[in-house]
Specification:
The chain contains 17 helices and 16 strands. It has about 400 residues and is an alpha/beta fold. The strands form four sheets. It has a six-stranded parallel sheet, with helices on both faces. The longest helix is centred in the middle third of the chain and has 13 residues.
Length: about 400
């Protein structure tokens, strides 16, 4: 019979309108958030504890704003079905859509919104739509990485009524650098007040993992001569044209590093030790390299913007996953191994990628993560940014 775990029930009891449910990847945030919705709309705690379903009373329409991947795989529908949400038992409306379409719902009122894999960082169109929705509806946010800086919390603080707008927050708390020609944040004033506000809205899930993660950095070689030449001359040797910006230079330097044969050999050695391996990559040229390698007698499949293969059901397989397409919204408990063929710029994406195999129902206790990297300047800089839990900035690196 369906029942929430003890740590999930404790989180449900602490939750309130406008909170951020903070749980690591694989902690069951979806089920927990739906448990809160169920209780808020007349359900009984006994059902969450596995003692039989009790109907909600006139539940509000439920809107779930999630990633395009989770919407398309209907992961949320499966979770809702456990509460009989979206079935003939209730007359309320269930709508599941992606963040790309959030503007479609900014006129909705008196409903309940679950914002999954929260995207309300910054002050763009998504945030403005979120703030309008939050003003006239009940809502909660789900996140595995709720915020690395106080600026990340600005939209949620405004939605909770702590500040009128971004200007008020910045006037009261932000310290700007005096030595840059653009607004660069150097620090924050009155952080005690910010800590108080964050404590009010951040609901931590006390999820104690049964798995043990083993991370290993595998250092490989790279073509130092070509790397230095491109860095000095700013010339794209593949397109035979000048490199005109920081992004182009970083792409070229990374290609020199990522195409090195020693990286490919290191990958094959790992695959010899592990029968089923997920390999994360960034660029199309990397996929071309990966697919040409000989891994022995095993199945190969891939998930990216062009191809969506299921996990092979064989004893030996290789699964190629492009970071942007496959860092979230799916899981695999058929393997204990992930190889990061190249590093990603985003700390959040890397953590989400690691979580694809670190699930509550995995049969493995030990999980293995191999990070292939060189001692080139760009790989070292990316590693440093990720180690400090921040994103790699191309412009800062080039300057």
């Amino acid at each position: 019979m369906f029942a929430l775990k003890d740590f999930q029930i404790e989180a449900v009891k602490k939750m309130k309108n406008g909170c951020i449910l903070n749980g690591g990847v694989g902690s069951g945030k979806s089920l927990t958030s739906l448990g809160y919705y169920y209780l808020r709309n007349g359900g009984k705690m006994s059902f969450l504890q596995g003692k039989g379903h009790s109907k909600m009373k006139n539940p509000k329409d439920l809107y779930i704003i999630t990633t395009a991947r989770k919407r398309d795989t209907k992961e949320w529908e499966e979770e809702c079905a456990k509460y009989l949400i979206g079935t003939d038992i209730y007359s309320h409306k269930l709508t599941i859509d992606s963040w790309n379409n959030i503007r479609k719902y900014k006129e909705v009122k008196d409903a309940f919104f679950i914002f999954d894999e929260q995207r309300v960082v910054g002050y763009g169109a998504w945030t403005k739509s979120f703030l309008k929705i939050a003003k006239f509806n009940e809502w909660i946010l789900l996140s595995a990485t709720p915020g690395d800086t106080w600026s990340d919390y600005i939209p949620v603080f405004i939605a909770n009524g702590f500040y009128k707008n971004k200007t008020e927050f910045c006037r009261e708390h932000v310290i700007y650098s005096r030595f840059t020609s653009y607004p660069k944040i150097d620090g924050y004033h009155h952080t005690g007040k910010l800590l108080k506000y964050r404590k009010q809205i951040l609901i931590d899930m006390n999820f104690k993992r049964q798995t043990i993660s083993h991370h290993e950095d595998i250092y490989v070689k790279y073509d130092v001569k070509t790397y230095k030449k491109i860095n000095k001359e700013r010339w794209d040797i593949w397109k035979d044209e000048p490199i005109i910006n920081a992004s182009g230079l970083c792409y070229a330097l990374r290609r020199v590093v990522n195409e090195d044969q020693s990286r490919q050999l290191a990958l094959l050695e790992i695959c010899e030790k592990h029968p089923r391996v997920i390999i994360f990559y960034n660029f199309n040229y990397e996929l071309d390299i990966l697919k040409k390698l000989y891994y022995g007698d095993c199945a190969m499949a891939e998930w990216n913007g062009h191809q969506h293969d299921p996990i092979p059901k064989t004893d030996r397989w290789i699964y190629f996953v492009q970071y942007t397409a496959g860092a979230e919204g799916w899981n695999c408990i058929a393997t204990d191994t992930i190889v990061f063929y190249s590093q990603n710029y985003s700390y959040k994406i890397v953590k989400q990628s690691e979580g694809r195999i670190d699930r509550m129902n995995t049969p493995y206790k030990d999980l293995y993560y191999y990070h292939l990297k060189s001692r080139s300047g760009i790989d070292i800089a990316i590693s440093k940014a990720l180690r400090e839990k921040r994103n790699f900035n191309e412009k800062e690196f080039v300057s």
